[in-house]
Queue: 2 jobs
Job 1
Amino acid sequence: MSIYMLCLVLFACGLYCILRKRNIIKIIIGIIIAEYGAHLFFILTAYRMQGRSPIYSVEADIKNMVDPLPHALVLTAIVIGLATTALIIAIAMRIYEKYGTFDITKIKELRG
Amino acid sequence: MGASNIIPLFVVIPLAGAFLISLLGKKIKGLADIIGVISGLSLCVLSFYAVRLYNIHGVLTYSVGAWMPPIGIGMIIDGLSAFMLVTVNLVAFCVVVYSLNYMEKYTAKGKFYTLFFLMLSGMNGVIITGDMFNLFVFLEIAAVASYALVAFGTEKHELEAAFKYAVMGTMGSLFVLLGIAFLYGYTSTLNMADMGAVISRKGTGNIVLMVIILFLMGFGLKAALVPFHAWLPDAHPSAPAPISAMLSGVLIKALGVYALCRIFYNVIGVSPLISSILMFMGTLSMVVAGLLAIGQWDYKRLLAYSSISQIGYIILGVGLGTPLGILGGLFHLFNHSIFKSLLFLNSGAVEYTTGTRDLQQMGGLAHKMPVTGATGLIGSMSIAGIPPFSGFWSKLIIIIAAVEAQKFAYAFWAALISILTLAMYVKVLKYAFLGNLAEKWKQIKEVPIFMKLSMSTLAIICMVGGVLLFANINDVFLNRASENLLQGRKYAVMVFKGIRQ
């Protein structure tokens, strides 16, 4: 049980980082941490106590296999996360070109 | 099975369009425009054809790669999906026609169309998919494309808004992913229909409550309901006008409202708790955003706040859970996507000719831009709920439904905010289009032909939108969609019947 909780703690760490940090790069790192928390949690739903690898053969019984599906799903989610992170970093670079700073308290022309 | 072969086309056509435009658009001049219009038009026609097919054959299902659901990924067109497809693709076609002229002032038109069609394929995918994880993937395709589109101008404001939007949007997606992980752990299936069946067998425990909260946060962020709305008033005005129209008109509805309704009604099953949360959040968005909107002086920012307020109406209508409420909510969804994209296209036309979005600097533009002025008047009257226009009927239905369900407080707020909406659009009309023409705008001309064409089309739909309530049309279009939500978890039975055929 505690291992599931640790994943959510990791997620919460990322969330804290996004909400509290002022540096754009640190916010991006927060997103990545939160993403890892979610991915690890998803992987853990596949875990079976003393399960074996999910390779099917004729004589082996299908009991107590690790669920292979979440692994495939998390792979997809990681790729999506990569695309998002790359885009956000590209935006962050352009912001630095325009504003000359990574501090979000100095980047606030939009309000109201 | 023949009829259901059109389903994957809704994802394939925009993807192929995006690919071809990015590959060939630079080499052959004008090709990007041609491919864009052809894909937009064919999607629009196909979506109407899908409504017709649904009315003939019932639920259409397509198994991707011939793997039968619930093992493989299923794509499903039922009444609600067909309804949403028409809404999304109709607006998308008008926006493509509008961009033919409007996007000339940006340098990379090909890249714009590529991102646009990626976003469109993501939205269509969210609407037709019957698989929970597939929904997440399509949601991310649409979201990532929209982050890039908000930053399209790469000026200070655009980048700031895009960063804010990207961070908040990514958080929303992560909540959705966590919710899917919980739901998969609980039901051990990913097919939405199958999930619904398992949940009605196993009952809703604490895990489902957790999933409800996660989805409410995740899709609430995408739909910009009030506690989660902070990104929208920055992101929507910063994007180029056609994209603002797409984002406000259909993206927040396809990714937010549609996904929320589909999952809460057809998978988890709506309970009084969910219903009251939805109604409360809807009313809160309606009131808070309405009050914030009226003080804005930036044309597009005012429209963006008003979008949040109108989303509140939709959520209130759908959250009521009565047949009339859901009908009103969906009708308002359709109307809002038409008139809000019209209004954003109008603001784009004003920005195209005058180069400003500040309402205080405008004035009397209707003298020089008659088409923009007239369509702006129609759009504003429609969103404010003046009788012959479409917005009036949907708001009326929502308020009547709220009174029928004994929710008098919600009905009161809905009526009050309707008056506030009228006030805010009278302000827009007064400052932008009516009054005396300022000296510096003496030289401006009306916008080019394609922009006029697309705005007039949307304005005509606004005017005649009320006919959707006539018995014959209502039966094949709106009623089918609300029936699909009302049947709740019987969705599973319906889908699996479709698969076995």
Job 2
Amino acid sequence: MTSASQISRPRSRKGVDGWRWTGRFFLVFMILYTAIPMVWMLLTSIKSGFAAMQFPPQWWPSEPTLASYQKLLDPQNSVGQDFLRFFWNSLFVSVCTTILAVLVAVPAAYAFSRFRFPGRRFLFFAVLLRNMFPAVIFLVPLFILMRVLGLVNTHGSLILTYLTFGLPLAIWLLKGFYDNIPIQLEQAARIDGATRFQAFLLIVTPLSVPGIIATAIYSFIGAWNEYIYAATFLTKNDQLTLPVGIQRFFSENTTDFPGLMAASFIMSVPVVVLFLVLQKYFVRALTEGAVKH
Amino acid sequence: MTTVAGHAGLSRKHFVVQPSLLQQMWTSRADYLYVLPAIVVMLVVIAYPIYYTIDLSFFKTPPGLQLRDKIFVGVDNYTSILSSEVFWRVTLNTVIWTVASTLIAFVLGFGSALALHRDFAGRAVLRAILIIPWVISAVAASYIWKWMYHSDFGLIGAVLVQLGIVDTQPNFIDNIYSVLPSLIVVNIWREFPFAMIMMMAGLQTVPEQLLRAARVDGASAWQRFWHITLPHMAGVSTVTILLLAVANFNSFIIPWIMTGGGPSNASHIWITHIYELAFGRQRWGVAAAYSVLLFIILMSLGYFYVRALSANEKKEQGA
Amino acid sequence: MAEVVLQHVMKYYGNLAAVNDVNFTVNDGEFVALVGPSGCGKTTTLNLIAGLLPMSGGDISIGDRIVNDLDPKDRDIAMVFQNYALYPNKSVYKNLAFPLQMRKLPNDEIDRKVQAAAKVLDITYLLERKPRELSGGQQQRVALGRALVRDPAVFLMDEPLSNLDAKLRVQMRSEIKRFHQDLNATIVYVTHDQLEAVTMADKMAVMNGGLLQQYDTPARVFANPINMFVAGFIGSPAMSLVPLQASTVDGRVSLSSVEGWSLPLSDANARKVASAKSAKVVLGARHSTIRLHKEAATGFVPAKVYTVEPTGDITFVQAFLSGAIVNISLPPTVSVAPDEMVWLEFDQERIHLFDGETEMALRAD
């Protein structure tokens, strides 16, 4: 018997069937709601432009083609050149953000979890409050700040900005992990001859690897998907990231839906793969970070 | 060799002068080093923008002029916002958007979590599929749904026509009545997985023994859900709903990419409106004043957020 | 090995004194148990000795050094934790090697010491395993091994047996005692289980509410509890404590009950009662010093049986006496039934008398 008995094991047969069928119908509905748009994206992306624009639609592509993908990924062709450049830009910005976010969030989360310095609660909530504010509020001042720092039209402006909106949740998630590592381990390490920092580095950090992975995925996905700052801070075509690049692409080719769907699909692949491979860490981090404290 | 300390046998609290705050801060000075990087980044990228926004909200920026040529206008920006019709329209849209998205996403997420709580073959696959919309970018989601809603070749319209429910392809997002609900559907699509993950996590904390005890006591499935599971989930639910509400209140990408706020402001919400004022029409001062109003609303939401979080934390420490 | 001296040690959490002016000396090679109910300050005291918490006042010295401001790593101590605190991502071998690596010993010496410690504790066959693959008892040995491998001046142990099941606990208890004898180690051992303290320690420090109540050998603490707390805490079943009134009946100093009877006291006990601050006196007696009679006689006091618990060789009886519960042990040949009226006889040589106001033991001056 599993832990789900509260909805599935009532006393009477009739109750069992009633609840079970409600649950099944609901799940089927949710799967359809979730999957149909994604399936339709895939089906459209392997149609020709002509095949996509038909009424009634071709439910299944009569002549599937990978032309849209070839065009987007062909470094010889100008569309492909742009698209691949956007892709690398996104990758660069996301990887840098991820590395920096982990480096900054790990010590901060550890401190919030372990130390009892004055102002700890205030600082912790101040960090969390950053989550409350919409990007738009920060756009103008940050734009000016980036100009002062000489970062306009550089990927540095995006990395710095993404860092700030990724950090609060990263710190929060990691704190949940550290809270679950018994403090006796560090005490033992310190008695065994380690300094406090060595105990953190040699004993605690290896144990928090799942949390660090989760934090990294979170930062990566956040940076990969971000649109507003990228659309505002970057004006040069060769620096755009994927979300902005695709928007430009679409405003120039308003009827190329197969191309747009193919681009959307390619843009989704890295984050979805990353997520599917590492989802157990991700879900666990959210669980420990969000629910347990 | 027997020692006795004073009045033994009674546990007494001894009151002494606590070390001063500054002393405490000095003794824990090394601790601050760990948080310093985070604090510095936060200060630069948060405190300064907030100060700047408040300052700018009292100035007018004539179109075509540089920001540095701003003119002080006092509270004019605020009075003109509060007396404009668009403001109330956008506010109503924002309320509908936030409340509907939050509640429906929460209910669907909670429902999915319950439906996936019991182990069955393929559960992990279904869970992964349900989470994907939350992972992919809102820009991609906007385009996917824009295509689903397309007024000539959209899938949804075509299905409705084929089923004989409507005669011609409905125009979902070019219609001032259907645009907001249509966008809310997209937003929920992207957001319910978050609620689902949170509630799944919460469900794992419901003590199995209590549920068994209730079953022995003869409680029906519904009664067990209502009297045990639900009260136990109150804390997680509060946090989840607050996080969803804040995220929805701050939504931008879906309405911006899909409709740009149109038609005739029918899908403008606060954030898209502010963005358009600032970057579309260069009315920085008014946009800043809007932002300050937004701050005030968010701070009050934030107050509940922090209270819900610290209530959870206290509960845990007490346990 | 070294001695540990605590002088006027204080620890405040905010305004609460978790450890309040504690003084005691652990002699070289001595096994001292810090014992008391949860929240009494015993673990905090241990953590202060370890240097895991900063002190609010006082001095702690280990060997000849004052260690107040030294890091834990510089105090030459080893510690065994309640949850063992084995590094979960390291093998047993690496767990044992870690303290030596931190001291930058050469690898061949580390290996030699780890193997030696593993042999002493009979865990050589576990060296390649991870902690989660070990049973509770095995983890316990590894934790001891990690403490042993360094040959520290003092061993600190924080409830090391409380996570083990009852049978294993008894076994490990004798092993730790053996460990102490073989190494002639200085050990400070925290436990909430008075039986552990009594059976293992050379001396026990009984704590309550942050205060050190009594520090002495287990035998003397048992025989002469300094106050009602220690009397009630040490010994199982607990010493019975019956609040009574000192009075003079027929010219003899007696203890009177609200139930109407009175118990005349011997001269020695009468002198003790004379030193009480008021007429409130608490009579204390251990279960084995009370005799149960079925008939009344002079000097006997009436009680009503509440529960009867046969354990095989001894039958424990709880009875109401003047509103308090009294524990009595009987040979299994005597049979009594709940609600039966019985008469109790106290051994005047072995009763304890406490001042009802101060809760301190009364002494004959």
